[in-house]
């Protein structure tokens, strides 16, 4: 279930499967950036301040990736609307004082002995 503002019927949170997919995707992207920082740190010559920045990024990004992946959507407050709250309608007019409608009453009876229903 993808959340789009135009198609939202209720204010329910994202489906757990979609939420987990988004967290895994964010984790993979962050760890890919970490690997790129690590490779660039080893390849860059001469050693300078960029090497230190890439090394620190390669060391800190795993922690950041795990924290963001575990945060999920639980930190985002969702307000669920009550299904009993409806659109307010104008009060209905009392029924007109006229002839009462015909009432049909049905009752079940047991069949008489010896008479069985035909198939």
Give an overview in words:
The mean pLDDT is 77. This protein has 119 residues and is mainly α. Helix 1 packs antiparallel against helix 2. The chain contains two helices and no strands. Helix content is 43%, strand content 0%. The two termini are 51 Å apart.
Q: Please state the structural category.
A: mainly alpha
- Summarize the biggest pleated sheet: none
User: Topology as H/E string?
Assistant: HH
- What's the overall average pLDDT, rounded? 77
Distance between the termini: 51 Å
Radius of gyration of CA atoms, rounded to a whole number: 34 Å
Shape summary? elongated
Number of helices: 2
Question: What share of the residues lie within helices?
Answer: 40-55%
How is this structure best summarized?
The protein has two helices and no strands. It has about 120 residues and is mainly alpha-helical. Helix 1 runs antiparallel to helix 2.
Write the layout of secondary structure elements.
Layout: H1 16-43, H2 49-71
Helix pairs in contact: 1-2
């Amino acid at each position: 279930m993808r959340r789009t503002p135009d198609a939202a019927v209720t204010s329910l949170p994202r489906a757990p499967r979609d939420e987990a997919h988004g967290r895994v995707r964010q984790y993979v992207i962050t760890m890919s950036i970490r690997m790129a920082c690590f490779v660039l740190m080893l390849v860059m010559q001469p050693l300078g301040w960029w090497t230190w920045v890439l090394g620190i990024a390669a060391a800190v990004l795993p922690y950041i990736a795990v924290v963001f992946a575990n945060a999920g959507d639980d930190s985002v407050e969702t307000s669920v609307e009550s299904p009993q709250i409806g659109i307010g309608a104008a009060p209905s007019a009392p029924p007109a004082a006229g002839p009462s409608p015909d009432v049909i009453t049905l009752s079940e009876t047991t069949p008489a002995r010896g008479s069985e229903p035909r198939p």
